[in-house]
């Protein structure tokens, strides 16, 4: 029940990767046949990924994952376009992999607008349009939120950016392979392997042809100079296979997850003093996110774990900063409300039994913690 | 992340509950910060005869409440006032650095309960406890303003 954090590698993906650790271990930059074989596999992966996403192979670059792709997008665009403008627009609910590079760019003299969201966590495309000014160079809005699962209107935002002559980046780490993604109005997109039943340490960045962007990692000139460093061929093969499987199996998987989501939301909603966060419909099929009054999320997570259910919370007590989740405060929750949050995220290997177990044990755990708590009595 | 002792107290909290007609009550923490500890004590002949507590917070806050209640039950007030947060940490087999404040909160709740008992009964309050009380009230007000 914590698939948004990470996913197990699908056995079919492991199988596809294995030969690239031992027999086919070449460096794609080498001239000999083992190296050339690696080069051929790399380019074949690039073609496959491009085809699956609807891009040109020359627009796909392999990276070490979502965080690196997001860093490349923000810093790379900022550095390459700083003479054109120094304004960047993003939202308050982005992943830290976008927010922290944005904050870093502020220290380097860039101006960043962090757009607010509504109570469902939606960015208003009109607010993007209003905020674009002459020196805006980039808009970065995530496709789907990792905590509350809200799917952002990125098509509309992308159109607005194109009209305004501004680059549009989307962090699609939570959406690629889960819901359809169209690159039509996107200039740059980040995706990660470990969220789609692929390995950790690999991801991609899609950069539309003609985009002015600087690399942030320099060296041997791999990935057309965009990402130097010997390519992680096994990881890249794994990412490619994982993406292929996700897209091939998206329809039945979505159907299953929507059924589970509906059941969980209906049943959890029966617990007193709780509410659903995120958008009721425009949300990731596998995401369920609730707040419970008078109890704290870390305790909830640990008691669920005792019952074999792995979940997550935006409570301050579970974070390193002792601050509640920025996403939950951005949708208007008070800190004491955010502390009582529970995220359940389902995926490929979630079963009906897993769902029923949550429905069976969650009410009792909430009740137990409320009995201990002095609040709400 | 947590020691076995912490997890044991969290899963099987001792002396948990609300007390009817307590002799002293100590309330510390704030929902905004994610921890609220309420301590109730019954005192007879200078001895903590019974203790109950209610806590809103993480596993560490719950475990601290539980072990503090165990540490003070049946003890003389004078001895109980000597308990420091490092004694609580020792009893729990330590807490992660970021959770140390929970152990401090436990000691503060205890101080407040005893202060409440002594002042309600017009008994003399040790100078150190007076100072601790002033500190605790100050923290509480700062939290509320925050």
Description:
The complex is a heterodimer of chains A (377) and B (146). Chain A is an alpha/beta fold and 377 residues long. Chain A folds into 2 domains: 11-248, Type I PLP-dependent aspartate aminotransferase-like (Major domain) (Aspartate Aminotransferase, domain 2), CATH 3.40.640.10; 250-372, Aspartate Aminotransferase, domain 1 (Alpha-Beta Complex). Helices cover 41% and strands 13% of the residues of chain A. Chain A contains 13 helices and 10 strands. Chain A has helices spanning 11-17, 19-22, 33-53, 66-81, 96-107, 125-131, 154-164, 233-248, 250-268, 297-306, 326-330, 335-338, 352-372; strands at 60-63, 87-91, 111-115, 136-140, 167-171, 188-192, 203-207, 274-276, 287-292, 341-345. In chain A, the strands form 2 sheets. Chain A has a 7-stranded mixed sheet, sandwiched between helices. Chain A has a 3-stranded antiparallel sheet with strand order 8-9-10. The longest helix of chain A has 21 residues, at 33-53. Chain B has 146 residues and is an alpha+beta fold. Chain B has one domain: Alpha-Beta Complex (Sufe protein. Chain: A). Chain B has a 3-stranded antiparallel sheet with strand order 1-2-3. Chain B is globular. At the A-B interface, helix 10 of A face helix 1, strand 2, strand 3 and helix 2 of B.
């Amino acid at each position: 029940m914590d698939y948004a954090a990470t996913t197990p590698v699908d056995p079919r993906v492991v199988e596809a990767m294995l030969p690239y650790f031992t027999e086919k271990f070449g460096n794609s930059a080498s001239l000999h046949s083992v190296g050339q074989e690696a080069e051929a596999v790399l380019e074949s992966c690039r073609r496959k990924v491009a085809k699956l996403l609807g891009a040109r192979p020359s627009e796909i670059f392999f990276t070490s994952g979502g965080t690196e792709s997001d860093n490349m997008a923000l810093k790379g665009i900022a550095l390459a376009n700083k003479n054109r403008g120094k304004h960047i627009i993003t939202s308050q609910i982005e992943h830290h992999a976008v927010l922290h590079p944005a904050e870093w760019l502020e220290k380097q003299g860039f101006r960043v607008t962090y757009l607010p969201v509504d109570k469902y966590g939606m960015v208003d495309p009109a607010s993007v349009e209003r905020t674009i000014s002459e020196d805006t160079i980039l808009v970065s809005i995530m496709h789907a939120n990792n905590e509350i699962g809200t799917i952002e209107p990125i098509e509309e935002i992308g159109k607005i950016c194109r009209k305004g002559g501004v680059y549009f980046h989307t962090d699609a780490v939570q959406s690629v392979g889960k819901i359809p993604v169209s690159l039509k109005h996107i200039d740059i997109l980040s995706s990660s392997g470990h969220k789609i039943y692929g390995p950790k340490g690999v991801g991609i960045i899609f950069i539309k042809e003609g985009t002015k962007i600087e690399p942030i990692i320099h060296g041997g000139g791999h990935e057309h100079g965009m990402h130097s460093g010997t390519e992680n061929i096994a990881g890249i093969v794994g990412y490619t296979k994982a993406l292929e499987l996700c897209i091939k199996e998206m329809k039945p998987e979505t159907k299953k997850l929507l059924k589970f989501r509906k059941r969980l939301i209906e049943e959890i909603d029966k617990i007193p003093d709780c509410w659903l966060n995120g958008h009721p419909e425009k949300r990731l099929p596998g995401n369920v996110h609730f707040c419970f009054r008078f109890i704290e999320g870390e305790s909830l997570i640990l008691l669920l774990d005792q019952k074999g259910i792995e979940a997550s919370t935006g409570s301050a007590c579970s974070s390193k900063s002792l601050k509640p989740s920025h996403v939950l405060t951005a949708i208007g929750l008070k800190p004491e409300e955010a502390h009582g949050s529970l995220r359940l995220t389902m995926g490929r290997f979630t079963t009906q039994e897993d769902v029923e177990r949550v429905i069976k044990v969650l009410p009792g755990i909430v009740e137990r913690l409320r009995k201990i708590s002095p609040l709400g009595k | 992340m947590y020691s076995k002792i912490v997890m044991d107290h969290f899963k099987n909290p001792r002396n948990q509950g609300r007390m009817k007609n307590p002799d002293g009550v100590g309330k510390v923490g704030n929902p905004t910060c994610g921890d609220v500890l309420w301590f109730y004590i019954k005192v007879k002949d200078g001895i903590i005869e019974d203790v109950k507590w209610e806590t809103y917070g993480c596993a560490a806050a719950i475990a601290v409440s539980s072990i503090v209640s165990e540490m003070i039950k049946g003890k003389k007030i004078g001895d109980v006032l000597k308990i420091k947060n490092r004694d609580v940490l020792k009893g729990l087999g330590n807490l992660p650095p970021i959770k140390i404040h929970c152990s401090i909160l436990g000691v503060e709740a205890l101080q407040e309960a005893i202060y409440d008992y002594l002042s309600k009964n017009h008994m003399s309050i040790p100078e150190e406890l007076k100072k601790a009380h002033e500190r605790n009230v100050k923290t509480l007000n700062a939290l509320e303003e925050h």
